[in-house]
Specification:
By secondary structure, this protein is α/β, with parallel strands linked by helices. Helices cover 45% and strands 15% of the residues. It has a six-stranded parallel sheet, sandwiched between helices.
Length: 340
């Protein structure tokens, strides 16, 4: 097992300097020196003793949050919950926008580790990308070995505590609402294929379709960006390829709003001609015309729970916790049953 002296030799610094950097001392050192020591820690897989980890955590005052885009209402709600808990604990929150760029997420983890934050919360969806996941695991492992804590929101193959939104179950609820109301020609406005959120919500929708002896064929699924413009783009593709649709599920509310605008521009009445369901229950879902039927997730609560777990020093990181966040269907005026 590597010792502090081994780390100091590998980094070319004194043991005292290595100890100060690993413990998160407030004494100023250059970024280059800190990087050398942390790199040595990573390469040697050095694990500080329990006293050193406690000291490091006690001196850290900031927490890092990596989101896909904090201007997205989904992440804005999650961040609101994260910040409320962090403020209660007297912590400064450093928010990093990855814009769904895996390389940028890796860079932010490295940056936050260098800043010696007390915890890192990954609030964005997981990726179907084995190489990225392996690289991210390695960086998070190096961070936790120096006393940092990690929590995630969503389905990730990563170490740390997790808040798990019921994305598959939410897709199932949306599917039951439509297929159970007589719809058979159902289109889907989906987010990027690489995101676990997309595949989980779509899987739940298809599970419901099977129960009602329906299908969601690939030709009726349009993938686009998880935003308003993506929704407008996707509904256009669906209408052009499948003009006989009677219902559409958008896998988030922003996409549903974009779809609603395009349907209105084409003179297609919602829900008289096409029923429309969203996902997440953003505040705007109540304000559009017609008000949007959607699947609700407790977004602010999810953020609060993720931050609470990340700051809970009483729980051992060796036994990660998974806390579910339930989905519920909210019926409004954008859907209707078909005549029997």
């Amino acid at each position: 097992m590597a010792t502090l002296a081994d780390v100091a030799r590998r980094a070319g610094v004194s043991p005292a300097t290595a100890s100060r950097i690993i413990s998160g001392s407030t004494k100023l050192v250059t970024d280059e020196l800190r990087a050398r020591v942390l790199r040595a820690v990573d390469e040697l897989q050095y694990v500080p003793n329990a006293h050193a980890q406690l000291l490091a955590r006690a001196q850290r005052t900031a927490v890092g949050v990596i989101v896909h885009d904090v201007s997205d209402p989904y992440f804005a709600e999650i961040t609101r919950g994260l910040q409320q808990v962090a403020t209660t604990h007297g912590r400064l929150v450093i928010i990093c926008n990855s814009y769904r760029d895996p390389a940028r997420e890796l860079e932010y983890v490295e940056l936050l580790r260098a800043q010696q934050v007390a915890a890192i919360v990954l609030a964005g969806s997981g990726y179907h990308d084995a190489a990225f996941t392996k690289a991210l695991k390695a960086k998070l492992a190096a961070y936790t070995r120096t006393g940092g804590r990690v929590s995630v929101i969503g389905r990730h193959e990563l170490p740390g505590d997790a808040v798990m939104p019921a994305n598959e179950e939410g897709g199932y609820l949306a599917g039951c609402e439509l297929f159970g109301s007589g719809h058979r020609r159902v289109g889907v406005i989906a987010g990027p294929k690489v995101l676990t959120t997309t595949t989980d919500r779509l899987a739940g929708l298809r599970r419901a379709a099977r129960e009602f002896r329906g299908t969601v064929p690939a030709r009726r699924v349009a993938y686009a960006g998880f935003d308003r413009d993506g929704g407008a783009e996707a509904i256009t593709a669906l209408l052009d390829s499948s003009p006989d649709l009677t219902a559409v599920v958008a896998l988030n509310d922003q996409m549903a709003v974009g779809a609603l605008s395009t349907l209105r521009a084409r003179g297609i009445a919602v829900p008289d001609q096409i029923s429309l369901i969203g996902f997440d229950d953003m505040p705007i879902a109540r304000d559009v015309t017609p008000p949007l039927t959607t699947v609700r997730l407790p977004l602010a609560e999810m953020g609060a729970r993720a931050m609470s777990m990340a700051l809970d020093d009483t729980h051992s990181p060796d036994t990660p916790r998974i806390e579910p966040a339930q989905a519920t269907l909210v019926r409004r005026e954008s859907t209707r049953s078909l005549p029997a």
